[in-house]
Design brief:
This protein is an alpha/beta fold. 31% of the residues lie in helices and 12% in strands. Strands 2-3-6-7-8-9-10 form a 7-stranded mixed beta sheet. It is globular and about 60 Å long. The protein has 12 helices and 10 strands.
Length: 356
Protein backbone atom coordinates (compact mmCIF):
# COMPACT_ATOMS: atom_id res chain seq x y z
CA UNK A 1 0.00 0.00 0.00
CA UNK A 2 1.39 3.41 -0.97
CA UNK A 3 2.50 5.87 1.68
CA UNK A 4 0.51 9.09 2.14
CA UNK A 5 2.66 12.19 2.37
CA UNK A 6 2.68 13.65 5.85
CA UNK A 7 0.82 10.73 7.43
CA UNK A 8 1.95 7.62 9.27
CA UNK A 9 -0.87 5.22 8.43
CA UNK A 10 -1.87 4.34 4.89
CA UNK A 11 -5.29 2.88 5.74
CA UNK A 12 -8.56 4.29 7.04
CA UNK A 13 -10.18 0.92 7.68
CA UNK A 14 -12.54 0.86 10.65
CA UNK A 15 -11.89 -1.80 13.26
CA UNK A 16 -14.17 -4.85 13.42
CA UNK A 17 -13.22 -5.52 17.04
CA UNK A 18 -16.52 -4.09 18.28
CA UNK A 19 -18.63 -5.35 15.36
CA UNK A 20 -18.91 -1.85 13.96
CA UNK A 21 -19.89 -1.42 10.31
CA UNK A 22 -17.23 -0.99 7.67
CA UNK A 23 -17.28 2.18 5.60
CA UNK A 24 -17.97 2.07 1.90
CA UNK A 25 -17.37 4.89 -0.56
CA UNK A 26 -20.58 5.95 -2.32
CA UNK A 27 -18.88 6.77 -5.59
CA UNK A 28 -18.56 10.51 -5.05
CA UNK A 29 -15.13 11.78 -6.04
CA UNK A 30 -14.84 13.59 -2.71
CA UNK A 31 -15.22 10.32 -0.84
CA UNK A 32 -12.48 8.78 -2.91
CA UNK A 33 -10.26 11.84 -2.29
CA UNK A 34 -8.69 11.66 -5.73
CA UNK A 35 -7.11 14.68 -7.35
CA UNK A 36 -7.82 15.67 -10.94
CA UNK A 37 -4.63 14.01 -12.14
CA UNK A 38 -5.44 10.78 -10.37
CA UNK A 39 -3.04 11.24 -7.44
CA UNK A 40 -4.31 10.59 -3.95
CA UNK A 41 -4.91 13.79 -1.98
CA UNK A 42 -3.48 13.89 1.56
CA UNK A 43 -6.38 13.83 4.05
CA UNK A 44 -6.94 17.09 5.90
CA UNK A 45 -6.92 17.40 9.67
CA UNK A 46 -10.24 18.16 11.36
CA UNK A 47 -10.83 18.98 15.02
CA UNK A 48 -14.09 18.41 16.89
CA UNK A 49 -14.62 19.97 20.28
CA UNK A 50 -15.65 17.45 22.90
CA UNK A 51 -17.36 18.23 26.20
CA UNK A 52 -16.93 15.32 28.63
CA UNK A 53 -18.24 15.42 32.18
CA UNK A 54 -14.86 14.54 33.71
CA UNK A 55 -11.24 14.85 32.64
CA UNK A 56 -9.11 13.00 35.20
CA UNK A 57 -8.76 9.26 34.52
CA UNK A 58 -7.65 6.84 37.24
CA UNK A 59 -6.04 3.44 36.76
CA UNK A 60 -4.77 0.55 38.86
CA UNK A 61 -2.29 -0.88 36.39
CA UNK A 62 0.77 -2.46 38.01
CA UNK A 63 2.82 -1.70 34.89
CA UNK A 64 2.86 2.10 34.89
CA UNK A 65 4.23 4.49 37.52
CA UNK A 66 1.17 6.75 37.87
CA UNK A 67 -2.43 6.26 38.91
CA UNK A 68 -4.07 9.26 37.22
CA UNK A 69 -3.79 11.07 33.91
CA UNK A 70 -5.29 13.76 31.70
CA UNK A 71 -5.69 13.58 27.96
CA UNK A 72 -6.73 16.99 26.66
CA UNK A 73 -7.05 15.60 23.12
CA UNK A 74 -8.14 12.39 21.42
CA UNK A 75 -6.15 11.29 18.42
CA UNK A 76 -2.77 12.74 17.58
CA UNK A 77 -1.60 14.54 14.48
CA UNK A 78 1.99 13.41 14.99
CA UNK A 79 0.92 10.21 13.24
CA UNK A 80 3.44 7.86 14.89
CA UNK A 81 2.77 4.55 13.19
CA UNK A 82 3.65 2.51 16.28
CA UNK A 83 1.43 4.47 18.71
CA UNK A 84 -0.21 2.12 21.19
CA UNK A 85 -3.07 4.63 21.62
CA UNK A 86 -4.39 4.19 18.08
CA UNK A 87 -6.93 1.49 19.08
CA UNK A 88 -8.77 4.04 21.26
CA UNK A 89 -10.31 5.51 18.10
CA UNK A 90 -11.97 2.16 17.40
CA UNK A 91 -14.25 2.74 20.40
CA UNK A 92 -15.85 5.58 18.46
CA UNK A 93 -16.34 3.86 15.10
CA UNK A 94 -13.25 5.61 13.75
CA UNK A 95 -10.19 4.19 12.07
CA UNK A 96 -7.15 3.59 14.29
CA UNK A 97 -5.22 4.37 11.10
CA UNK A 98 -5.78 7.64 9.25
CA UNK A 99 -8.69 8.78 11.43
CA UNK A 100 -6.51 8.66 14.54
CA UNK A 101 -4.13 11.21 13.05
CA UNK A 102 -6.60 13.31 11.02
CA UNK A 103 -9.91 13.30 12.94
CA UNK A 104 -8.94 14.84 16.25
CA UNK A 105 -10.94 15.83 19.32
CA UNK A 106 -10.17 18.67 21.71
CA UNK A 107 -11.52 19.14 25.23
CA UNK A 108 -11.47 22.91 25.80
CA UNK A 109 -13.07 22.68 29.26
CA UNK A 110 -10.33 20.36 30.58
CA UNK A 111 -8.92 22.86 33.09
CA UNK A 112 -12.34 23.69 34.55
CA UNK A 113 -13.22 19.99 34.80
CA UNK A 114 -9.93 19.39 36.59
CA UNK A 115 -10.65 22.30 38.94
CA UNK A 116 -13.98 20.69 39.83
CA UNK A 117 -12.25 17.39 40.59
CA UNK A 118 -9.48 18.93 42.68
CA UNK A 119 -12.06 20.88 44.69
CA UNK A 120 -13.86 17.74 45.88
CA UNK A 121 -13.45 17.17 49.64
CA UNK A 122 -12.15 13.62 49.26
CA UNK A 123 -9.50 14.33 46.64
CA UNK A 124 -5.94 13.29 47.53
CA UNK A 125 -3.07 14.62 45.37
CA UNK A 126 -0.62 12.50 43.38
CA UNK A 127 1.25 13.39 40.17
CA UNK A 128 -1.04 13.81 37.16
CA UNK A 129 0.45 12.32 34.01
CA UNK A 130 -0.02 14.18 30.72
CA UNK A 131 0.92 12.57 27.42
CA UNK A 132 -0.12 9.02 28.21
CA UNK A 133 -2.64 8.41 25.41
CA UNK A 134 -2.13 11.43 23.17
CA UNK A 135 0.59 14.07 22.94
CA UNK A 136 -0.30 17.20 24.97
CA UNK A 137 1.88 19.28 22.64
CA UNK A 138 0.68 18.06 19.27
CA UNK A 139 0.19 20.86 16.69
CA UNK A 140 -3.38 21.80 17.68
CA UNK A 141 -2.17 22.79 21.17
CA UNK A 142 -0.88 25.99 19.54
CA UNK A 143 -4.51 26.96 18.91
CA UNK A 144 -6.35 25.47 21.89
CA UNK A 145 -3.71 25.87 24.63
CA UNK A 146 -5.51 23.32 26.77
CA UNK A 147 -2.29 21.87 28.14
CA UNK A 148 -1.17 25.34 29.17
CA UNK A 149 -4.46 25.96 30.98
CA UNK A 150 -4.02 22.71 32.93
CA UNK A 151 -0.47 23.68 33.88
CA UNK A 152 -1.67 27.10 35.02
CA UNK A 153 -4.16 25.38 37.33
CA UNK A 154 -1.50 23.00 38.66
CA UNK A 155 0.72 25.99 39.44
CA UNK A 156 -2.17 27.83 41.11
CA UNK A 157 -2.97 24.96 43.48
CA UNK A 158 0.56 23.47 43.76
CA UNK A 159 -0.37 20.13 42.22
CA UNK A 160 2.40 17.89 40.82
CA UNK A 161 2.31 16.97 37.13
CA UNK A 162 4.43 14.94 34.71
CA UNK A 163 4.64 15.49 30.95
CA UNK A 164 5.62 13.17 28.11
CA UNK A 165 5.91 14.57 24.61
CA UNK A 166 7.63 14.31 21.23
CA UNK A 167 7.45 18.04 20.59
CA UNK A 168 9.67 21.02 21.28
CA UNK A 169 6.41 22.97 21.57
CA UNK A 170 6.72 22.24 25.29
CA UNK A 171 9.12 25.20 25.42
CA UNK A 172 6.19 27.57 24.82
CA UNK A 173 5.21 26.84 28.42
CA UNK A 174 8.71 27.22 29.81
CA UNK A 175 7.60 30.12 31.99
CA UNK A 176 5.12 27.87 33.79
CA UNK A 177 7.46 24.88 33.88
CA UNK A 178 10.18 26.96 35.54
CA UNK A 179 7.78 28.02 38.29
CA UNK A 180 6.50 24.48 38.76
CA UNK A 181 10.06 23.17 38.88
CA UNK A 182 11.02 25.71 41.54
CA UNK A 183 8.35 24.12 43.73
CA UNK A 184 9.30 20.53 42.79
CA UNK A 185 5.99 20.04 41.00
CA UNK A 186 6.95 18.93 37.48
CA UNK A 187 9.00 16.43 35.52
CA UNK A 188 9.23 16.32 31.70
CA UNK A 189 10.15 13.40 29.47
CA UNK A 190 10.84 13.91 25.76
CA UNK A 191 10.72 10.85 23.55
CA UNK A 192 13.46 10.46 20.93
CA UNK A 193 13.10 7.41 18.72
CA UNK A 194 15.84 7.94 16.14
CA UNK A 195 18.55 10.44 15.24
CA UNK A 196 17.85 10.01 11.51
CA UNK A 197 15.46 12.78 10.37
CA UNK A 198 14.48 10.84 7.24
CA UNK A 199 13.51 7.78 9.26
CA UNK A 200 11.78 9.99 11.82
CA UNK A 201 9.59 11.53 9.12
CA UNK A 202 8.48 8.05 8.11
CA UNK A 203 7.85 6.88 11.67
CA UNK A 204 6.50 10.11 13.17
CA UNK A 205 5.62 12.31 10.18
CA UNK A 206 4.37 15.38 12.06
CA UNK A 207 6.44 15.21 15.23
CA UNK A 208 9.38 17.54 15.84
CA UNK A 209 12.70 16.51 14.35
CA UNK A 210 15.07 14.55 16.61
CA UNK A 211 17.48 17.49 16.89
CA UNK A 212 14.68 19.84 17.95
CA UNK A 213 13.66 17.42 20.68
CA UNK A 214 17.20 17.07 21.98
CA UNK A 215 17.65 20.85 21.88
CA UNK A 216 14.41 21.20 23.86
CA UNK A 217 15.80 18.85 26.51
CA UNK A 218 18.84 21.09 26.80
CA UNK A 219 16.68 24.21 27.15
CA UNK A 220 14.57 22.61 29.88
CA UNK A 221 17.58 21.46 31.85
CA UNK A 222 19.29 24.85 31.53
CA UNK A 223 16.11 26.42 32.93
CA UNK A 224 16.16 24.10 35.95
CA UNK A 225 13.26 21.89 34.81
CA UNK A 226 13.79 18.18 35.62
CA UNK A 227 13.84 16.50 32.20
CA UNK A 228 14.85 13.11 30.86
CA UNK A 229 15.09 11.45 27.47
CA UNK A 230 12.82 8.51 26.73
CA UNK A 231 14.08 6.22 23.97
CA UNK A 232 10.63 5.02 23.10
CA UNK A 233 9.84 2.90 21.40
CA UNK A 234 12.87 0.90 20.36
CA UNK A 235 12.05 -1.00 17.17
CA UNK A 236 14.41 -3.90 16.45
CA UNK A 237 16.29 -3.62 13.14
CA UNK A 238 14.72 -0.18 12.53
CA UNK A 239 15.73 2.22 15.32
CA UNK A 240 17.82 0.21 17.79
CA UNK A 241 21.10 1.23 16.11
CA UNK A 242 20.59 4.78 17.43
CA UNK A 243 20.32 3.79 21.09
CA UNK A 244 23.89 4.75 22.04
CA UNK A 245 23.81 7.84 19.84
CA UNK A 246 20.64 9.18 21.46
CA UNK A 247 22.15 8.79 24.92
CA UNK A 248 25.37 10.49 23.78
CA UNK A 249 23.56 13.45 22.19
CA UNK A 250 21.31 13.78 25.22
CA UNK A 251 24.30 13.80 27.55
CA UNK A 252 25.85 16.56 25.42
CA UNK A 253 22.95 18.89 26.31
CA UNK A 254 23.00 18.05 30.01
CA UNK A 255 20.56 15.14 30.27
CA UNK A 256 21.33 12.94 33.25
CA UNK A 257 18.34 10.60 33.24
CA UNK A 258 16.87 8.28 30.62
CA UNK A 259 14.37 5.47 30.09
CA UNK A 260 13.60 3.07 27.24
CA UNK A 261 10.55 1.13 26.09
CA UNK A 262 10.37 -1.67 23.54
CA UNK A 263 7.77 -1.30 20.81
CA UNK A 264 4.27 -2.59 21.64
CA UNK A 265 1.69 -3.49 18.98
CA UNK A 266 -1.72 -3.91 20.65
CA UNK A 267 -4.90 -4.66 18.69
CA UNK A 268 -5.10 -2.71 15.41
CA UNK A 269 -1.57 -1.31 15.73
CA UNK A 270 -0.02 -4.60 14.60
CA UNK A 271 -1.60 -4.71 11.11
CA UNK A 272 -0.98 -0.99 10.63
CA UNK A 273 2.66 -1.46 11.56
CA UNK A 274 2.99 -4.46 9.26
CA UNK A 275 1.61 -2.41 6.37
CA UNK A 276 4.08 0.37 7.21
CA UNK A 277 6.96 -2.11 7.14
CA UNK A 278 5.82 -3.49 3.79
CA UNK A 279 5.75 0.06 2.40
CA UNK A 280 9.01 1.44 3.78
CA UNK A 281 11.17 -1.59 4.64
CA UNK A 282 9.96 -4.57 2.60
CA UNK A 283 13.47 -6.05 2.62
CA UNK A 284 13.44 -6.56 6.39
CA UNK A 285 9.75 -6.64 7.31
CA UNK A 286 9.85 -10.35 8.11
CA UNK A 287 12.95 -9.98 10.27
CA UNK A 288 11.49 -7.09 12.23
CA UNK A 289 8.25 -8.90 13.02
CA UNK A 290 10.04 -12.13 13.87
CA UNK A 291 12.25 -10.25 16.33
CA UNK A 292 9.28 -8.46 17.91
CA UNK A 293 7.49 -11.79 18.32
CA UNK A 294 10.60 -13.30 19.89
CA UNK A 295 10.47 -10.73 22.70
CA UNK A 296 6.69 -11.09 23.15
CA UNK A 297 6.60 -14.85 23.60
CA UNK A 298 5.67 -15.58 19.99
CA UNK A 299 2.98 -12.92 19.60
CA UNK A 300 2.83 -9.46 18.08
CA UNK A 301 1.93 -8.14 21.52
CA UNK A 302 1.78 -9.45 25.06
CA UNK A 303 -1.06 -7.64 26.88
CA UNK A 304 -0.72 -9.38 30.25
CA UNK A 305 -0.18 -7.34 33.39
CA UNK A 306 3.42 -7.62 34.66
CA UNK A 307 4.53 -8.72 31.17
CA UNK A 308 3.48 -6.06 28.64
CA UNK A 309 6.23 -3.59 29.65
CA UNK A 310 8.89 -6.25 30.24
CA UNK A 311 10.14 -7.79 26.98
CA UNK A 312 12.00 -11.07 27.33
CA UNK A 313 14.43 -13.11 25.28
CA UNK A 314 17.86 -12.61 23.73
CA UNK A 315 16.96 -9.43 21.84
CA UNK A 316 15.44 -7.78 24.91
CA UNK A 317 18.44 -8.75 27.03
CA UNK A 318 20.80 -7.29 24.43
CA UNK A 319 18.95 -3.96 24.31
CA UNK A 320 18.81 -3.83 28.09
CA UNK A 321 22.55 -4.43 28.36
CA UNK A 322 23.41 -1.89 25.64
CA UNK A 323 21.29 0.74 27.36
CA UNK A 324 22.88 0.08 30.74
CA UNK A 325 26.43 0.26 29.40
CA UNK A 326 25.85 3.40 27.31
CA UNK A 327 23.99 5.18 30.10
CA UNK A 328 26.79 4.44 32.57
CA UNK A 329 29.37 5.70 30.07
CA UNK A 330 27.63 9.07 29.85
CA UNK A 331 26.76 9.43 33.54
CA UNK A 332 23.05 8.89 32.92
CA UNK A 333 20.78 7.26 35.49
CA UNK A 334 17.05 6.72 35.95
CA UNK A 335 14.57 9.58 36.53
CA UNK A 336 14.48 9.89 40.30
CA UNK A 337 12.58 13.10 41.03
CA UNK A 338 9.98 12.73 43.76
CA UNK A 339 7.45 15.46 43.23
CA UNK A 340 5.96 17.35 46.16
CA UNK A 341 2.39 16.33 47.00
CA UNK A 342 2.28 18.13 50.34
CA UNK A 343 1.85 21.72 49.12
CA UNK A 344 -1.45 21.12 47.33
CA UNK A 345 -4.27 23.52 48.21
CA UNK A 346 -7.75 22.60 46.93
CA UNK A 347 -9.23 25.28 44.67
CA UNK A 348 -12.67 26.79 44.93
CA UNK A 349 -14.81 25.87 41.94
CA UNK A 350 -15.27 29.51 41.06
CA UNK A 351 -11.55 29.88 40.50
CA UNK A 352 -10.68 31.52 43.85
CA UNK A 353 -8.40 29.79 46.31
CA UNK A 354 -9.67 29.35 49.85
CA UNK A 355 -8.19 31.85 52.31
CA UNK A 356 -7.87 29.26 55.10
Amino acid sequence: MAAIKGRGASSADVSERFNLPQRAADGDWLDEAEAIDGMRCPPATTVTEEHPRSILSFNRSPDIPFDRSINAYRGCEHGCIYCYARPSHAFHDLSPGLDFETRLFAKPAAAQLLRDTLAKPGYRPAPIAMGTNTDPYQPIEARYRITRAVLELCLEVSHPVTITTKSDRVLRDLDLLEQLAARNLVMVGISVTSLDPVLSRKLEPRAASPEKRIAALGRLIAAGVPAHVSIAPIIPAITDADLEGILARSADVGVRAATWIMVRLPHEVAPLFRAWLDTHFPDRAGKVMATIQSIREGRDNDPRFFHRMKPTGVWADLIRRRFTVAARRHGIGSPAARLDCTAFRPPARDGQLDLF
